[in-house]
Amino acid sequence: MQSSHDVTMGNAPPSIPSATTTGGDTEPKYGGFSRFEIELEFVQSLANPFYLNDLASQKLLSDPAFVAYLAYLQYWTRPPYLKYLTYPGPTLKHLELLQQEKFRQDIISPELAQILAAEGVKASVEWHKDR
């Protein structure tokens, strides 16, 4: 599958596929997936701090075009897109942190990735205890 950052982004967020979409859908496909599906998968991957560490180790977080793409992905923080996120807490937290240059530099540290992972586990445990 083509990676999400290889997809040409437009100025507007992708259209949300409707349940009534037919085979005559005119939205372009990238490896069989819509732009909405690709961007959803990518933005949700940002919930994983070890993936963020990997992006930093590949020097993507210092690439101005990739940083611009991360800024563009802010549309996921608003309805109607927000409701499609499986793990909105860590996804949105990390998307927000990625807007900061210092965080994009610091996440190269495996120790920071481990701290974020531990915080995520703790938050999940606390959330389940309160239910």
UniProtKB/TrEMBL annotation:
The lineage of its organism: Eukaryota, Fungi, Dikarya, Ascomycota, Pezizomycotina. This is Mediator of RNA polymerase II transcription subunit 31. Belongs to the Mediator complex subunit 31 family. Pfam families: Med31. The keyword Transcription regulation applies. It is found in: Nucleus. One of its GO terms (cellular component) is mediator complex. The keyword Transcription regulation applies. Component of the Mediator complex. InterPro entries: Med31_sf, Mediator_Med31. One of its GO terms (biological process) is regulation of DNA-templated transcription. Component of the Mediator complex, a coactivator involved in the regulated transcription of nearly all RNA polymerase II-dependent genes. Mediator functions as a bridge to convey information from gene-specific regulatory proteins to the basal RNA polymerase II transcription machinery. Mediator is recruited to promoters by direct interactions with regulatory proteins and serves as a scaffold for the assembly of a functional preinitiation complex with RNA polymerase II and the general transcription factors. Its main location: nucleus. Keywords: Activator, Nucleus, Transcription, Transcription regulation. Residues 1-30 are annotated as: Disordered. It comes from the Eukaryota.
